[in-house]
Amino acid sequence: MKNIIILITALMIASCGTDKKKEAKKVEEVAGNIASFTDAQKKNAGIVTGNMERRTVSATLQLNGKIDVPPQNILSVSVPLGGYLKSTHLLPGMHINKGETIAIVEDQQYIQLQQDYLTAKARLVFIENEYRRQKELNLSKASSDKVYQQAEADLKTQKVMISALSERLKLVGINPDRLNENNISRTVNIYSPISGYVSKVNVNIGKYVSPTEVLFELINPTDIHLALKVFEKDLDKLFVGQKVVAFTNNETGKKYDCEIILISRDLSADRTADIHCHFEEYDKKLLPGMYMNAEIPVSNAAAWALPEAAIVRFENKQYAFIQKNEHQFEITEVTTGNSEKGFVEILNAERFAGKVFVTTNAYALLMSLKNKSEE
């Protein structure tokens, strides 16, 4: 019996001890959420209080992509009739001007083409004279209709041949109007069709190139644009004509103003679409293939907000301090949204209606709480 009484007494003492520990722990947790500052400490720390403000906050869409060139600004240079590359001075990255000679190609077929054209022109004089003669003879019936018709057909055939040979000469860069028996050449010049720079050089001196081979790739950079990736859920926030601010990873402070010119409606396997933006001012530092980041303001809405100095980050969460009384401030978790012009949107603002917050130097209060917990 005595042992039973002793056991019951021990259990009661242990239970009382546990309750006291829980109560002490509860008091400690409550005290650990409240920072106490005297008037002097508040002044030294620069603590200022105020209410949440109703402000217009813009949501910003963060995107990334790279600089692209439209197909019409990328040109592949070939030799229409083929030949041996006699000379070129091009190197990748070199700037060229429209009409500049970028290569010289030679081949015996160019000699033959010029010969055929000049021969056809010389024969045309004879055929025209023969046609006029047969026409006069036919009028007096001194020549049959058949002979006259044959002369007429020969004249038309010769003119077609000369016209075709003339176009072939133009195709290889030879002006037929300036061609005569004294300036026949075995070489033809290849001229740059645009002003821009060289992207690729695929040939070397002495190599024979066929008409299907690409000698050089040229890029006209004046119409480069920015291609950005946007997720399906954000497509309805964008529209043609919307302003975009872009920047590179190397120069985040250098901003480039752009405008959306095209929004793709074709989604890829990862549920993204391309949007194309035009640079308002061309910068030679921007090269095709260069990766860039972009920011797009997508909405303006009124929201309750606090100054950025009122928000503290601790253990991957956002907090603010609510004034309990003149000298005590309670740390409270807040859900933040977009930020603009030094203010942060508070998404769970309805919980804090009428509350007074610490609006500056909230980190001083956080340091005070951390120091107290370490004691």
From TrEMBL:
The keyword Transcription does not apply. SUPFAM superfamilies: HlyD-like secretion proteins. InterPro entries: MFP_Cation_Efflux, RND_pump_MFP. Keywords: Transport. The keyword Transport applies. GO terms for molecular function: transmembrane transporter activity. GO terms for biological process: copper ion export; plasma membrane copper ion transport. It comes from the Bacteria. One of its GO terms (cellular component) is cell envelope. Belongs to the membrane fusion protein (MFP) (TC 8.A.1) family. PANTHER family: CATION EFFLUX SYSTEM PROTEIN CUSB (PTHR30097), SLR6042 PROTEIN (PTHR30097:SF4). This is Efflux transporter periplasmic adaptor subunit.
